[in-house]
Design brief:
about 475 residues; alpha+beta; FAD/NAD(P)-binding domain; D-Amino Acid Oxidase, Chain A, domain 2; 8-stranded mixed β-sheet; 6-stranded mixed β-sheet; 22 strands; about 25% strand; binds flavin-adenine dinucleotide
């Protein structure tokens, strides 16, 4: 690479992570190009995306709040329903999130969200659409990627934001194992697993499902999530696969698969007077997608770093994956910006790049694992994956207040990262003020090895015992009443 050329980042993928990365790099004045294989930044695919206080804080910092507020709906009510559609709980969960952080959970149509992320970019010159990456080469002093039209782009580092089937990740693995044979093991490569599929789509508004509501319908082997805004219902059915599979196995569902799954669910109640079939019949669109989950061990190698679904993929019931992707991009951009400031205009060495990437991974991997675990438990609880999960969600969870649930997630959100190089004025009148993660503060051996395991086991044992006790007491009380 030419020493005189400015440091240049190549972002592969123009989805949630890639577009956020372009915003963050533009704020830092770092030269970059974003390569997206589709012809538009906002294809009419998927259903919705919800942003929580951590994602909304990033949106705020990037100066996008007004534009995003104009296309989103803050959630207000949470309804829990049994498999027969009957109501058993309405929660104040979202009110508590507002009390805790000043913001709730904002619901966007996914396409509109991506469109605004693109439209609000201060400079669109770095964005290249119809630019599918088909080759990645790490050179001693830079990187070179080849596009499907044969053209090449040169840069200093690559950020792989190209989703769960990442091409950049495969190239990184190949390169890493050439340099250090066995570094990326088969175990790591197969650690993303697909145990669920999702039937997702958009239908017209439905009075029974409200205008700012989230409805969860629990079930055996599958669960429904319905999110409403004043005009639409975003529907999600999460279905357990009979046989989970791992990378590199991949499934692409056909239209016939979609119709067959929808037909099988048509009679399933959503409320006491609405079935899934009623929604499906009126749908604007609907599709079937595999739902992968897992967090990889290696987030970088050489001049390549991965961010978003390419390195941490979570099940979507709680809607945490896109927020986590934005967080990871923010942390990576902080580390890149800090590295460049230390270079004083010169090009960073491989060691400096490695240190920056290592810091990025160290700051974010624990959060990613936590989010993956929370999401996995949620998906399994809502679809009664085992008797334990069924007892937990139907008997035990209702005993806890919504405040407790909001506070548990709130502890995770309040430690979310922000851009270190952009001013931000956080709201003051909130219950859970923002906290910073300090890597310099060393964890003791006890904290690292024992505390988290001990805590997890204690929670599991206590919860199981409480669940069994609750059922027993409840059964006895019915006998006494009889
Ligand atoms: C059904 C469902 C609902 C969800 N709901 C929520 C929610 O409510 N809230 C939330 O926070 N998260 C949600 N998520 C998760 C969220 O959508 C993802 O975590 C997020 O999109 C990840 O962003 P990404 O940039 O890593 O990948 P993506 O958004 O998938 O973007 C990857 C991009 O890379 C491009 N690409 C791929 N290969 C190449 C290549 N070779 N060359 C060039 N470009 C390439 C693709 O075209 C794509 O545009 C949901 C996920 C699913 C499946």
């Amino acid at each position: 690479m030419n020493e005189k050329k400015p440091f240049r980042v190549i972002i592969v993928g123009g989805g949630v992570g890639g577009l956020t990365a372009s915003h963050c790099l533009q704020k830092a004045g770092i030269d970059h190009v974003l390569l997206e294989r589709r012809s538009t930044a906002a294809p009419p695919e998927g259903a919705s995306i919800s942003l929580y206080p951590n994602g909304l804080r990033i949106v705020n910092q990037l100066g996008l709040r007004k534009a995003m507020d104009a296309i989103s709906t803050p959630a207000k009510y949470l309804w829990w329903r049994r498999p027969d559609g009957s109501f058993f709980r309405q929660g104040r969960y979202y009110d508590y999130i507002v009390e805790n952080h000043g913001r709730s959970s904002d619901l966007f149509e996914r396409r509109e969200f991506l469109q605004v992320l693109y439209d609000t970019l201060p400079n669109k010159t770095p964005i290249r659409t119809d630019a599918g990456v088909v080759g990645v080469k790490e050179l001693p002093d830079g990187v070179q990627v080849t596009l499907n039209d044969g053209s090449v782009e040169n840069g200093d580092i690559i950020i792989g934001c190209d989703g769960v089937h990442s091409f950049v990740r495969n190239a990184m693995w190949e390169n890493a194992n050439k340099v250090a044979p066995g570094l990326i093991t088969e175990k790591e490569k197969t650690s993303m697993v697909t145990s669920w599929k999702g039937l997702i789509g958009i239908a017209p508004a439905e009075a029974k499902l409200g205008q700012r509501d989230a409805t969860i319908v629990f079930g055996q082997g599958h669960s429904f999530l319905l999110l409403s805004d004043p005009e639409r219902i975003f529907f999600f059915v999460f279905i357990a696969l009979e046989k989970p599979f791992h990378w590199p196995e991949r499934v692409r569902y056909t239209d016939d698969d979609v119709e067959a799954v929808a037909a099988g669910l048509a009679d399933s109640p959503i409320t006491d007077s609405l079935t899934f079939g009623d929604l499906w019949k009126k749908r604007y669109r609907g599709t079937l997608v595999p739902l992968e989950e897992g967090v990889l061990e290696h987030w970088y190698h050489g001049r390549t770093a991965l961010a978003g679904d390419s390195v941490h993929k979570v099940t979507p019931n709680l809607g945490l994956g896109g927020n986590l992707t934005m967080e990871s991009v923010v942390v990576l951009c902080n580390c890149i910006q800090e590295m460049l400031v230390a270079q004083n205009g010169g090009k960073p060495s491989q060691d400096a790049i490695t240190n920056a990437f290592a810091k990025y991974q160290a700051l974010q991997i624990r959060r990613a694992n936590q989010v993956c675990e929370i999401s996995a438990a949620n998906t399994r609880g809502q679809s009664w994956h085992t008797t334990f999960y069924k007892l937990m969600v139907m008997w035990l969870e209702p005993l806890f207040s919504d405040r407790f649930g909001a506070d548990m997630l709130g502890e995770m959100w309040r430690r979310a990262p922000k851009l270190n190089y952009v001013d931000l004025e956080d709201a003051k009148d909130i219950r859970l003020s923002w906290k910073e993660i300090n890597l310099a503060k060393k964890q003791t051996w006890f904290q690292k090895k024992v505390r988290s395991r001990l805590l997890r086991s204690t929670i599991k044992i206590t919860l199981s015992a409480a669940a069994v006790a609750t059922v027993a007491i409840s059964l006895c009380s019915w006998r006494i009443i009889d």
